[in-house]
Automatic annotation (TrEMBL):
A biological process from GO: iron-sulfur cluster assembly
Entry superkingdom: Bacteria
Domain SUF system FeS cluster assembly SufBD core: start-end pairs: 177-403
Positions of the SUF system FeS cluster assembly SufBD N-terminal domain: 19-166
Protein name: Fe-S cluster assembly protein SufD
Organism name: Corallococcus aberystwythensis
Similarity annotation: Belongs to the iron-sulfur cluster assembly SufBD family.
InterPro entries per record: Fe-S_cluster_assembly_SufBD, SUF_FeS_clus_asmbl_SufBD_core, SUF_FeS_clus_asmbl_SufBD_sf, SUF_FeS_clus_asmbl_SufD, SufBD_N
């Protein structure tokens, strides 16, 4: 479908007239920006390696209602983490399978549809402030269809020790389904929490998830953010994470991308106060004909901040992956300490990766470094394992797991790491042979 199809979908959605004036204005701006831009093409530098034409294969539409059958209940039982959670199916909130008990004092979690009714003043100040509709076409489209998602707020000095989970299940219905979740996190001064976004697939229906997350951290606030993306083999997924950090705040993003025919994850992080720390980690594992894109943009706009960035890719068969990262150090951002590393492992002759780490430095008193590497399994290590009676498939799994383990170990021990380990095990070489 062309850009006009998505514009028609947005116009039909907005014609319902069920939104307050301020929200309708955001939706209309999103539609206007989308119409002005249209869908990106390979001629757009930032989308040069993303096969956007895939999004035109089906007439994706948002759904109004979903039924949470036994398949959904079983998936939630398998994927849910201990603690509070919100569950969504094809972009619609499912209260019966969500858990809102166990939240500590000062921590509020609610579906965005409810927050739009109850927290208008807060959302008018925060919604769309970090992910402007003008950012690109799919941010515009998300704004044009803005209706559901989640709001997580942390009062000053609130502490949430148990991870908060947002579980998005893509099932597909009578036709191709478009889901446009918007997640808003507002963390007050000195607060601390862990947020886990999980995206998984149900069935073989055609689905397109276009997600946007906005994170605003107050002074001395801390947030660990995990994104576990493991949707089905035919799913399309575009996700954008936008963060802004106050003074002495700490932000960690851990993105694990395993599923989808096409999956693109973007992280846009900005320092708004001195003394901030930012960690951007990512692991993408693809096989078959999967296409997994990763883009990061880290803005050191103020002095005395540090950032560490490590992305690894593992690609087999004819899968393709990309990492395009940029660190920008502005003129006034003296004493910046930043590093960016991309490492990639190709397991077959047909696998491809495009890695492009970038530094733009306009300050002179900084410590910055970046680098990239692309290679294959070490022949000597593989020979050593096989000479000791280990079958080739198992040896390849062991070496690949060792390559990925650095990012897995960066996840604190507990249910989140266990979930990452399980997802990774499903994607390692030899899984299809063992299961098939």
């Amino acid at each position: 479908m062309s850009a006009s199809h998505y514009a028609d979908v947005a116009r039909t959605f907005q014609a319902r007239g069920d939104a307050p004036a301020w929200l309708q204005a955001i939706r209309e701006e999103g539609l206007s920006q989308f119409q002005a831009r249209g869908l990106p093409t390979s001629k757009d530098e930032e989308w040069k390696y993303t096969p956007v034409s895939t999004l035109s294969a089906h007439p994706f539409q948002p759904v109004r209602d979903v039924s949470a059958g036994e398949d959904v209940a079983q998936a939630v039982a398998r994927l849910a983490l201990p603690g509070p959670r919100l569950v969504f199916v094809d972009g619609r909130f499912v209260p019966a399978l969500s858990v809102l008990t166990g939240l500590p004092r000062g921590v509020v979690l609610k579906p965005l549809s409810q927050a739009l009714r109850e927290d208008g003043a807060l959302l008018q100040e925060t919604l769309g402030q970090l992910s402007r509709p003008s950012a690109h076409a799919f941010t515009s489209l998300n704004a044009a269809l803005l209706e559901e998602g989640a709001l997580l707020t942390l009062a000053p000095r609130a502490l949430s020790e148990v991870p908060v989970q947002l579980l998005f299940l893509a099932r597909g219905g009578d036709g191709p389904v478009l889901a446009s979740p918007r997640i808003v996190v507002v963390a007050g001064e000195g607060s601390e929490a862990t947020l886990v976004e999980t995206y998984a697939g149900l069935g073989s229906g055609a689905t397109f998830t276009n997600a946007v997350t906005e994170v605003s951290l107050g002074d001395n606030a801390s947030l660990r953010h995990f994104k576990l993306q493991a949707e089905g083999d035919t799913a399309l997924h575009l996700g954008g994470l936008y963060s802004r950090q106050g003074r002495d705040s700490r932000f960690q993003s851990h993105a694990f991308s395993f599923g989808g025919a096409l999956a693109r994850n973007e992280v846009h992080a900005a320092f708004a106060g001195e003394g901030g720390e930012c960690v951007l980690n990512g692991l993408f594992v693809g096989r078959g004909t999967q296409h997994l894109d990763n883009r990061t943009d880290l803005d050191h706009a103020v002095p005395h901040c540090s950032s560490r960035e490590l992305y690894k890719g593992v690609l087999d068969d004819r899968a393709r992956g990309t990492f395009h990262g940029k660190i920008r150090v502005r003129e006034d951002a003296q004493k910046t300490d930043a590093s960016q590393t991309s490492r990639n492992l190709l397991l077959s002759e047909g696998a491809q990766v495009d890695a492009r780490p970038q530094l733009e430095i306009f300050a002179d008193d900084v410590k910055c470094a970046h680098g990239t590497a692309v290679g294959r399994l070490d022949d000597n290590a593989l020979f050593y394992l096989r000479s000791r009676g280990i079958p080739k498939v198992d040896a390849e799994r062991m070496l690949t797991q060792a390559f990925a383990s650095e990012l897995v170990r960066a996840v604190p021990e507990g249910p989140v790491r266990a979930r990452v380990e399980a997802l990774l095990a499903e994607k390692l070489p030899g899984t299809a042979e063992v299961m098939g």
